Fold:
Amino acid sequence: MPNSKPSLSLFTGAGGLDLGLESAGFAVSLCIELDTDARATISKNISDWKLSEPGDILVLEPQELALQSGLGPGDIALISAGPPCQPFSKSSYWAHEPRKMKDERASTIRRTLEVIDYFQPDAILIENVRGLTYTNKNEGYLEIQRGLRLINEKHKTAYELQCLTLDAAKFGVPQHRERSILVAHRLGKLLSVPETHQTNRIDPVNDLPFCPNTWDAIGHIAPTNLAELELTGKWADLIPSIPEGSNYLYHTERGDGVELFGHRTKFWSFLLKLAKARQSWTIQASPGPATGPFHWDNRRLSVGEAAALQTFPDGFLFEGNYRSQLKQIGNAVPPGLGFVLGCALLDQWFDSPKVQANKFIPPLKSSIPEPEVVRAVPGKYLQNVGPKAAHPGHGLGPGATRRIVNSQKTRKTSNNPAA
Structure:
């Protein structure tokens, strides 16, 4: 692309973020990615992206990245990064005694700062789960802030960390995927929130424009490997008794099914099913047998369907087995959101206005089929029907009780070294 701005991609994964950034006008000079299957996916689909050797950023010094990319300090317009999110995910947030910056994966943040320190790019974009910035659990965010402050003191730059919390669904992606987008400019410029996606389809309930939905994205896909997509596990036969767009809550005291579970006693994704007329919920990277979202045909999503909900282009192929391919897709930034972010950066920080439409967003279909028929609850589950206790409320559940007890034990031990 003429006049493209050079970028360096850290933790590229399958390339979702960078596909969008490149389409907006950035040129990927080098990709650093450790996962073997993800590297193979990039090589298969994007032959002109150069992969670093080796792929481990903790082994590669910034000077080696300069040699491999052919770029030095001051040459890079953008460093994009998506450090491993596990230390900052919701499951880690609810760990008994989280110490995220002691997690070896959090060392990737420190290496990211070292790369920024060396190259001093015009702009920085770091994507992660919302847990990165949770109050009192934001060690990773504070680490980045401290690192940029030291870089500013050293190089007389003015990086000012800014956090945008964005839901991909508001920007045309047919999937609710809320993430923290951290950005900073070398001269201290601030970024305005990008414009949301607008369509002519109006939601009659909210009188607001409808973005593309699940049917728009995957209604045309007919998987051929249905045997591989069959549901397994204890609750597999219960899923057909849950309506489109609902989850286990349907079978609670406050739902319209039978009372099999306590209200709000499970994760939202438990037995979660897609609805044709709504946007998908977040595609999981490593789902369990009862973790949705599941297809309205009462099966797992195919790789092609999951990729389409993430707005990967048609024909984009993933390497590895089913679990590895789904992990690459679930860990990715939707290319459609990457394009929106790239356009915002180029428009506001590089005086390069957007000149094209977002090619990753699926077109709206003219009609949506009726929801699938809900089946009866199989007899083997009916023996479990009966009153169930609901979750007692925020901070009162068994997990919270466990954390309080463990915290008290820790304080008692620290106050009594002889114990």
Summary: Residues 171 and 219 are 20 Å apart (CA to CA). Residues 88-101 have pLDDT under 50 and may be disordered. The longest strand covers residues 178-185. Residues 398-415 form the longest helix (18 residues).
